[in-house]
Specification:
The complex is a heterodimer of chains A (410) and B (266). With 410 residues, chain A is α/β, with parallel strands linked by helices. Chain A contains 15 helices and 14 strands. The model of chain A has no long low-confidence stretch (mean pLDDT 98). A 9-stranded parallel beta sheet of chain B has the order 5-4-3-2-1-9-8-7-6. In chain B, helix 2 packs parallel to helix 4, helix 2 runs parallel beside helix 11 and helix 3 packs across helix 10. The chains are: A alpha/beta (410), B alpha/beta (266). The complex binds pyridoxal-5'-phosphate. Pyridoxal-5'-phosphate binds next to helix 5, helix 11 and helix 14 of chain A.
């Protein structure tokens, strides 16, 4: 398996939609073949269309708020005592997380296709919140599928979704988390694909959804590359990019523009959710060697039993609490371009405490996983190494959990 | 390929009626009961579709999900599914069996091993919900080599070009999905319209047996009588659920229901 240079990873799949011949694809019911083909055709056309690109850039700049800040975490750097630690504060984006990029692009596509309704899944509630915002902005009706457990633990985002006029459909099947929300959303699309567009909330699902999402979040690294060049005059000799990985949309977007650099110069570190340290359950299929299986229309490393039943996950962070992972990350893992590891619930909480103590940013539980690994590795790295962590979500949505676990009030 | 499935269709045609296909989940509500249900309904059904339950079924509605979760909770494994079918095939009124499920379970079991075990246990056909054409070409060929019918699905959204290709590469049975829906949805298209679409498929190749499924109940089944075959699934799964809720015997309840369904298409 090999990664090619000078061509976006997004386009390195075969005609059946597989990266590396085995990750991704389109394992979908017949009914979805047409809407998927239609979406593929529309996206292929528009991504080369200058007018569409300037429309995207217009909304990213004036509505999402590009660029998000790139800041040095001086106090944290001093405290850790090793590599220079920086952060790309993607939570600056309108709505408070990277999910706004994918949501905006999907609503633009839905408008072009003449659809009036858009449906989407959500775990942490950010994908749902952003889709409800974008739907409102572009005049679409919006339905959000969310696991009942996540509705309980991510109330601030639930409220935001409702206040944007979207309908929330609670999902009570299975573990009542993201995996069930995505399934239910896909079922809804099967039954309503003639009138409704679907937005998959991360770089998962059938091939085209992986591509649209990765294409959208790549805005993060487009901004970052310019910011790094402005700051350092060149791409540093040793650069390490840390990002949490749930479905993998923020990490992919954070890395995309740096793909062709040698990994000795620009290393990618993906941090999955290890779950509670005492529990065997986790949401880290790449770290813990899960087998390749099919979930939500795509082949990927996924937590499953020997029979192929998808296994329940556990993580304090609803956004990472997913048994599978993007085919793109499976491909980056097997081609060894990126390295993957996990942080436990406790690690993430500890990292949140440290970061919010020394700095003015407050990463949500998802990026706190990335901070945890970045901090512990930065300690051992030389002073001329540049560590950048994507702070891709704001912690306000986690206030209830943070109050309970750490006694902090947001 | 003249296998038991084709024979079942020929028999129904001789009696000038559509073939009746039932769908039940292996192991629902228990391994024993699901075998008993198969044995009881096979007096009336022409072909039995048997689901191997998956816990992330993206094309199934509430009724079949409930049946699947019940079966999984009862510990049903693929080997149990094969055992149930094997025992059914040894029974007096045994009927052709089509296994139906999701691709990941086949993948984890091993594609060749799965097909060999299908053959060994006398399974006549396979429906893999999330393995559409053309992705299913290789797998369908592997089925053909073992004289197992791979059943292609066609939906109202299937484009003209796809339609011809799919029909051309189909084996002896095609499954037309009546409407845009997961299983178990309310019939939201008129039977007339469904039959019209069905006829478009038949016109391309009248020789292929084409069944209609999704949303068919006791109420609607007689209006679709002109098809080669009709599939009832969710209504049966729902009957199992309601009989359990009411403390009734699911075997007799389901068997009565299938008997009624059959009477409506005679
Ligand atoms: C703040 C935040 N970070 C990360 C994630 C994980 O998703 P992904 O890996 O697609 O970025 C989520 C998902 O909900 C999220 O809300």
């Amino acid at each position: 398996m090999k990664l090619k240079k000078n061509i976006s990873v997004l386009d390195q799949h075969d005609k059946f939609g597989f990266w590396g011949g085995k990750f991704g694809g389109n394992f979908v019911p017949e009914t979805l073949k047409k809407p998927i083909n239609d979406l593929e055709a529309l996206f292929d056309k528009l991504k080369k269309n200058k007018k569409f690109l300037s429309e995207r850039d217009y909304y990213f700049k004036n509505w999402v708020g590009a660029p998000t800040r790139f800041i040095k975490l001086s106090n944290l750097t001093k405290h850790v005592g090793g590599a220079e630690i920086w952060s790309k504060v993607v939570s600056d984006a309108n709505g408070g997380a990277h999910k706004i990029y994918n949501a905006t692009v999907h609503c633009l596509l839905a408008k072009k296709s003449g659809k009036r309704i858009i449906c989407g899944d959500t775990g942490a509630g950010y994908a749902g919140k952003m889709l409800s915002m974008a739907a409102k902005k572009f005049g679409l009706k919006c339905k959000i599928f969310m696991g009942a457990k996540d509705i309980k633990r991510q109330q601030p985002n639930v409220k935001a979704i409702k206040s944007n006029g979207a309908e929330i459909i609670p999902v009570y099947s299975g573990s009542q988390t993201l995996v069930d929300a995505v399934s239910e959303c896909m079922r809804f699309w099967v039954a309503n694909c003639d009138t409704t567009a679907m937005c998959v909330g991360s770089t998962v699902g059938p091939n085209i959804f992986v591509k649209i999402c990765g294409w959208s979040t790549s805005q993060i690294s487009r901004e970052l590359k310019i910011q790094i060049l402005n700051e350092f005059g060149k791409i540093p000799k040793r650069l390490k990019l840390y990002n949490c990985v749930g479905g993998g949309s923020s990490s992919f977007g954070f890395w995309h523009e740096f793909m062709d650099y040698n990994k000795k110069q620009v290393e990618f570190i993906g941090v999955e959710a290890g779950g509670p340290s005492k529990s065997k359950k986790h949401a880290a299929p790449l770290t813990y060697g899960s087998k390749v299986g099919v979930l939500h229309g795509a082949a990927q490393y996924v937590n499953q039993n020997l029979e192929g039943q998808i296994e329940e996950t556990e993580s304090i962070s609803a956004g990472l609490d997913y048994p599978g992972v993007s085919p793109l990350h499976c491909f980056l893992k097997d081609t060894k371009r990126a390295r993957y590891t996990a942080a436990s619930d406790e690690d993430a909480l500890k990292a949140f405490k440290i970061v919010s103590k020394y700095e003015s940013i407050r990463p949500s539980l998802e990026p706190s996983h990335a901070f945890s690994v970045a901090i512990s590795e930065a300690k051992k790295l030389s002073k001329n190494t540049i560590v950048i962590v994507n702070s891709c979500g704001d912690a306000y949505k986690d206030r209830k959990i943070l109050k309970k676990k750490l006694g902090v009030k947001l | 390929m003249i296998n038991a499935i084709s024979k079942a269709f020929n028999l129904a045609k001789k009696e000038s009626r559509p073939a009746l296909l039932t769908y039940t989940v292996a192991g629902d509500n228990t391994k024993k009961n699901s075998l008993k249900i198969l044995k009881a309904i096979s007096k009336y059904a022409d072909i039995c579709e048997v689901g191997f339950p998956h816990n992330t079924p993206i094309a199934d509605g509430g009724q079949i999900q409930t049946s699947s979760f019940r079966a999984i909770k009862n510990g049903v494994k693929i080997k149990d599914v094969f055992k149930i079918v094997k025992d059914f095939k040894l029974s007096e009124f045994s009927k052709p069996v089509i296994l139906m499920g999701y691709f990941n379970m086949v993948l984890q079991y091993g594609q060749n091993k799965f097909l060999n075990d299908c053959k060994k246990n006398k399974i006549d056909g396979l429906i893999i919900v999330d393995l559409p054409w053309p992705e299913n070409k290789k797998f369908a060929n592997r089925c053909k080599k073992r004289s197992i019918s791979f059943v292609q699905l066609i939906s109202p959204t299937t484009s003209k070009n796809r339609l011809s290709s799919i029909i051309k590469e189909s084996h002896n049975m095609i499954y037309y999905i009546s409407m845009l829906s997961t299983t178990g949805g309310k019939l939201k298209v008129s039977p007339k319209k469904i039959i019209l679409n069905y006829k478009k498929i038949k016109r391309i190749n009248p020789k292929k047996n084409c069944v209609i499924g999704f949303g068919i109940t006791e109420k609607s089944i007689s209006k679709l009588k002109s098809a080669d075959g009709l599939v009832v699934g969710s209504a049966i799964c729902k009957e199992i659920t309601s009989s359990l809720n009411n403390g009734q015997n699911p075997v007799t309840k389901v068997s009565n229901m299938v008997k009624k369904l059959k009477n409506k298409i005679l």
